[in-house]
Amino acid sequence: QVQLVESGGGLVQPGGSLRLSCAASGFTFSSYFMSWHRQAPGKERELVARIGNTGVYTNYIGSVKGRFTISRDNDKNTVYLEMNSLKPEDTAVYYCFGRNTWGQGTQVTVSS
Length: 112
What we know:
Blueprint: E1 3-7, E2 10-12, E3 18-25, E4 34-39, E5 46-51, E6 58-60, E7 68-73, E8 78-83, E9 92-98, E10 101-102, E11 106-110
Parallel strand pairs: 2-11
Antiparallel strand pairs: 1-3, 3-8, 4-5, 4-9, 5-6, 7-8, 9-10, 9-11
């Protein structure tokens, strides 16, 4: 059974940092691109960052470039999203996606 489980969300002040993790199981993790998406209240879900199966290829939406870093550990079947210099507009539920499967999401709230 394919499963993605996110963790690491929470409440952080503007300018702060969080590291999200997504643990994968039930498929050959190292063979698949993985991505992080987010959905803010009243908005459509959007792609935030994507990483190739070896970790060499990465891509980001413009609003997070230079602040967020996607990475993966194929030995641990885990993909990460390091988020720095967080802004209130980064507030959203963050979802992990891979092998046509969504995780359950983790809430990130940026507020003073």
